[in-house]
Amino acid sequence: MHRTRSIGVMGGGQLGRMLAHAAQRLGMRVTVLDPQADCPAAQVADAHIRAAYDDDQALDALARCCDAVTTEFENVPARSLVRLAQAKPVRPSADAVAIAQDRLLEKQFFIKQGIATAAFWQLDKPADGSHGASIEACHDARFPAILKTRRLGYDGKGQINVPNRESLSKAWAELGYVDCLLEERLDLRFELSVVLARGQGGELRVYQAIENIHHQGILALSYFPARSHPEFAKQAEVLAAKLANGLDYQGVLCVEFFVVGPLDDPRQWHIIANEMAPRPHNSGHITMDACAVSQFEQQARVLAEFPLGDTSAHAYACLINLLGDRWFDRDGCYREPDWAGLLAIEGLHLHLYGKHEARVGRKMGHINLCATSEALVDRALEKALKVLERS
Ligand code: ADP
Ligand code: MG
Q1: Going by DSSP bridges, is the β-strand pair 316-323/270-277 parallel, antiparallel, or unpaired?
Q2: Quick one: which ligand is closest to 149's CA?
């Protein structure tokens, strides 16, 4: 008789939803734990445990009903993953998630693996309320810089620009004096991400690097495969694999890289690691339509202990993130994008996440554009942006 494989997912956002779609296609049963009713993943999952992420009873119920558990957001309490791991395999492990959750541990891990990072200085939450000493410890910091909270930041949240030393104290106050890293502002030429899957026994499948364009800290566009200076894409793929092996990682991992250096002298450009996500990544949504097997199916395969899938690309592609901003016109009046106009574009794939309320900056969905050449991708992109801007 066929044995149904069951997976549990901590978190009910769009990543859980797309994982559920992929896992169900492989005949798997999906249970989601999320406190919110009608969240994107709960709409499609086989079962929804509606509870807080640190609710022991709910965690035990999740562990009982599945063969393996994963997390769709990195800020899940590490203690919850440890509890789940006492009952069922958790992939990625609580240890790997704990490193990716903390910008300091993450950067220290990159350095230990021999991979360059932005220069950074530590600002520790003062035990006695006297933050002057912590600021003093950054006396050799370089400006302009960016102050980032060590934990819980995403999509540019938990970050403040610090143009000079004088503004550091105010910036830290704005972040509530939590543990932070002060990071030098780099002269970015372009940004890359590498998504990979690593299974039991170290089986490794790496997707080609993706090139990313951010607006105000949020991903706006991705090109796949990366277009600029292919030698850096190759380096990024090798470095991401090294990090996954170094962590003995199991699951889908994404590593973000910056290529930095002076605009007028490409010979001085070099690659540094920015951060990693212990899960499928927004940029990796491009694999849903441009690759043989998507990042979500890889995650399902790791959880079910199936062989990993083919990561090769069968198209040139571009991803457009659909933020809630697109649901409002210039006067702030609500109006949905022109779906019919978009879907008339050849090679366009629309993915919406089932979020009922559009808000500025909220990720509502994405578009993948696939074609047989970069020029055709660009033509489709031009058309799609025209429809989005007109509607
Ligand atoms: P998040 O967790 O919000 O994605 P990131 O550290 O990746 O945080 O920062 C978001 C974006 O901000 C990056 O993709 C990049 O465009 C920009 N950024 C972050 N750090 C730096 C830096 N040190 N110098 C220049 N730009 C940066
Ligand atoms: Mg990032």
Answers
A1: unpaired
A2: 1
The pTM score is 0.96
Neighbours of 130 (CB within 10 A): 9
Helix or strand (DSSP H, E) at 385? helix 374-390
Q: Which residues contact 92 (CB under 8 A, 6 or more apart)?
A: 70, 71, 247, 249, 250, 251, 253, 278, 279
Could you give the CA distance from residue 277 to residue 286 in angstroms, rounded to a whole number? 16
- Tokens standing for 207? 């997707």
The burial class, CB within 10 Å (0-12 / 13-18 / 19+), for 136 is exposed
- Distance between terminal CA atoms of the chain? 52
Is any atom of ligand 1 closer than 6 Å to the C-beta of 274?
yes
Closest C-alpha residue for ligand 1 atom 15: 217
Helix or strand (DSSP H, E) at 363: strand 363-371
pLDDT digits (tens, 9 = 90+) for 105-136: 999 999 999 999 999 999 998 777 677 777 77
pLDDT digits (tens, 9 = 90+) for 147-188: 999 998 888 889 999 999 999 999 999 999 999 999 999 999
DSSP string, 37-97: TT-TTTTTSSEEE-S-TT-HHHHHHHHHH-SEEEESSTTS-HHHHHHHHHHS-BSS-HHHH
Token pair recorded at residue 47? 């079962």
Beta bridge partners of 9: 32, 70
Any bridge partners for residue 334, and if so which? 328
251 lines ligand 1 (CB under 6 A): no
Ligand 1 site, residue 306, Cβ cutoff 6 A: no
In sequence order, the 6+-apart residues with CB closer than 8 A to the CB of 380 are 318, 345, 346, 347, 348, 369, 371
Q: Candidates 154, 274, 283: which one to mutate for ligand 1, based on the most atoms within 8 Å of Cβ?
A: 274
Number of the ligand 1 atom closest to the C-alpha atom of 118: 23
CA distance 88 to 101: 22
Q: Which residue has the tokens 């949020």?
A: 218
